[in-house]
Amino acid sequence: MELRVSATRQELTRLKNRVRMAARGHRLLKDKRDQLMKEFMAIVHENQRLRKELERRLSAAYRSFAQARALLSPPVLEEALMASSGPEEVSISYRRIMNVVVPEMDIRGAGEEGEERTEGAALGAMPEAAPGASQRGAPGESRKRAVNLGIPPYGLASTSSDLDDAIKEFQGILPLLVKLSEVERKIQLLADEIERTRRRVNALEYILIPELEAAVKSVEMRLEEMDRANASRLMKVKDIVRAH
User: Fold this and answer.
1) Entry pTM
2) To the nearest 5 percent, what fractions of the chain are helix, strand and coil?
3) Cα separation of 107 and 55, whole Å?
4) Band of the pLDDT at 193, cuts 50, 70, 90?
5) Does some domain include residue 147?
6) Given a cut of 50, is residue 232 above it in pLDDT?
7) Contacts by 66-75 with C-beta closer than 8 Å and gap 24+?
8) 94: β partners
9) Which of 219, 211, 227 is nearest to 11 (CA)?
10) How far is CA 142 from CA 18, 137, 168, 169, in A?
11) Phi then psi for 55, rounded to 5 degrees?
12) Number of domains into which the chain is organized
């Protein structure tokens, strides 16, 4: 589509400035697109690595869980699974990749930090027991120390080591799932931005810049025609003046 412009030297100067600005914007957008593609491919490779790791660990977890399910009764298995589940917190922060806001996720047990500080303070403030005195604390304290030491929070006599392995594997998979969701969200956001940038680059390269350059040529040609017409009129006026 041809731009409608007036054939004046002021308009010609304005069009040339627009061509320079469009060309500069085109270069910057191409650089941005190329950098986004580099970041995108790096995150895609990380996504592939995480997926392979997730598949490997899921296979091991399901294998251990299948062995445990074959040995345990459903009520015992359900009770152990309910006891081993705990609240988790996912903290989300944000950073920018080429002006694209992407999430950063981290997972930890809810209240984990507070419990560690509380337990540390309690242990530091606890007086030394006299020789021969009982070292048993409150039932709640004993249970919390058992969990912090990595002992499963269910009866060991009625379960199997296969269940312990399966629960440990599944608990280790959860941070991997959170990381994978973070990476896939980054891929989606970067892919959307790459597509938007690509459309802008193509619009500048194939539509706007050619239209501006065509408008510049059109104005230059019309100005040249006007200059030739003016020169022809001046020559005729001079001829008339000389004739008189």
Assistant:
1) 0.69
2) 75, 10, 20
3) 20
4) very high
5) yes
6) yes
7) 67/160, 67/162, 68/159, 68/160, 68/162, 68/163, 68/166, 71/160, 71/162, 72/158, 72/159, 72/160, 72/163
8) 103
9) 219
10) 75, 6, 21, 25
11) -65, -40
12) 1
In a domain, 3, yes or no: no
In a domain, 96, yes or no: yes
Full residue range of the structural domain in which residue 42 is found:
9-126+137-243
Query: pLDDT value at position 228?
Result: 86
Using one digit for the tens of pLDDT, what is the confidence trace for 144-162? 333 343 455 555 555 667 7
Q: Is 40 left (phi over 0), alpha (psi -120 to 50) or beta?
A: alpha
Tell me the two tokens of residue 46. 């990380």
User: Positive or negative CA dihedral for 167, 84, 108, 119?
Assistant: negative
**What type of residue sits at position 63?**
R
pLDDT (tens digit per residue) in 8-59: 889 999 999 999 999 999 999 999 999 999 999 999 999 999 999 999 999 9
Phi, psi of 37 (to 5 degrees): -65, -40
* Residue-level length of the chain: 244
pLDDT (mean) for 174-201? 95
Domain containing residue 204: CATH number: 1.10.287.3240
Query: HSE-up of 140 (CA within 13 Å, CB side)?
Result: 2
Q: Distance (Å, rounded) from C-alpha 62 to C-alpha 136?
A: 38
In-domain check, residue 193? yes
Question: Hey, what amino acid is at 104?
Answer: E
Three-class SS state of 150: coil
